[in-house]
Q: What sequence folds into this?
């Protein structure tokens, strides 16, 4: 789901499936009310597009729509980003800065990945929502704001509340009207229409790109783990490689990113063993500096575990460059995760079941940058 510049609210949400028809109905019901909305659904399913549709169909449609990804902003900058700061409030605050709440005054503030918001910020956000006023970092006075909140998360908020990671009172303040966004796997019948929509949105860049019915049938078999975002990226790749052509099932299959080249169990084992292997090699290098070297017996168990997990065996006389192999696997999965997440590091880290900081360190190691 993407937004065309002049699209009507009902046209922003693309698809004719039953779940999308119900989604449009809910958007039409809640948009005029002004109630806070909580959108729940998997990453890449189009939560921001639904938020924009709600804004466009509301009485605030001609006012600002401001989007903030709460999971992509460092926690020490989030307060300033949301509420603003006064000049001199902290090191580097060289001028007064309006926060996103002030920017969205009169319109809609979209708080994406609200489930990733730190606990201390949840308290401050709740106070702002209750008082309808913000206080800039380093400021003393309250600044009144008229903002409609649409929040979104891919997390299980009920589980987060039970685990003490999300405030229940904030949940009830945000989820006046909850909406569940379906995954693309739940509405695969919409894939052809979405593809045509993306091709049209690309304009001249897509040339006369078309898809055969057999190609659509092939794509209906795909699980779309990256949801609509993955489909959009798929169309981008198709336009680059096959501009002006009609894509058949073979070409469509060649364009799909196959996250399953190593199974989930094997992937998990590889990540775990990779971390131990890096530690082992680091120890080996330290020992070499001290005049000693790890023995082959100390390295072999790790090597054997990796080869079994990767479904590959060792042959006598055919050594395996284990360090290079593992580095290649890491790099490949990071690249695919960044592609599926449009370069959003927090989303890519979740796809890889890694902490955000761990992924950043791995990207630095391979000299990789987010798109």
A:
């Amino acid at each position: 789901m993407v937004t065309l510049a002049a699209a009507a609210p009902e046209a922003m949400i693309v698809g004719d499936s039953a779940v999308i028809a119900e989604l449009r109905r809910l958007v039409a019901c809640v948009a005029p009310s002004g109630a806070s909305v909580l959108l729940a659904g998997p990453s890449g399913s189009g939560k921001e597009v639904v938020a924009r549709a709600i804004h466009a169909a509301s009485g605030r449609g001609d006012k600002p729509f401001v989007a903030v990804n709460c999971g992509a902003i460092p926690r020490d900058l989030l307060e300033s980003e949301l509420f603003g700061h006064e000049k001199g409030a902290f090191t580097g605050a060289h001028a007064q800065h309006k926060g996103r709440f002030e920017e969205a005054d009169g319109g809609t503030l979209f708080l994406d990945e609200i489930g990733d918001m730190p606990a201390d910020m949840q308290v401050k956000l709740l106070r702002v929502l209750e008082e309808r006023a913000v206080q800039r970092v380093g400021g003393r006075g309250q600044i009144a704001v008229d903002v409609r909140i649409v929040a979104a998360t891919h997390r299980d908020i009920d589980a987060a509340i039970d685990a003490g990671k999300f405030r229940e009172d904030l949940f009830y303040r945000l989820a006046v009207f909850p909406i569940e966004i379906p995954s693309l796997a739940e509405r695969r019948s919409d894939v052809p229409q979405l593809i045509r929509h993306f091709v049209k949105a690309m304009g001249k860049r897509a040339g006369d790109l078309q898809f055969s019915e057999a190609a659509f049938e092939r794509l209906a078999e795909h699980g779309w783990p990256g949801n609509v975002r993955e489909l959009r990226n798929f169309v981008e790749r198709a336009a680059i490689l096959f501009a002006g052509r009609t894509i058949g099932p073979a070409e469509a299959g060649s364009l799909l990113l196959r996250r399953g080249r190593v199974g989930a169990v094997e992937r998990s084992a590889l990540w775990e063993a990779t971390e131990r292997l890096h530690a082992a090699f680091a120890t080996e290098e330290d020992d070499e500096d001290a005049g000693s070297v790890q023995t082959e017996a100390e390295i072999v168990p790790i090597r054997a575990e990796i080869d079994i997990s990767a479904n590959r065996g060792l042959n006598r006389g055919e050594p395996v460059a284990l360090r290079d192999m593992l580095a290649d696997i890491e790099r490949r999965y990071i690249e695919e995760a960044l592609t599926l997440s449009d370069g959003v590091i927090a989303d890519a880290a979740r796809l890889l079941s890694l902490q955000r900081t761990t992924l950043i360190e791995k990207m630095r190691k391979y000299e990789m940058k987010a798109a």
Summary: The mean pLDDT is 82.
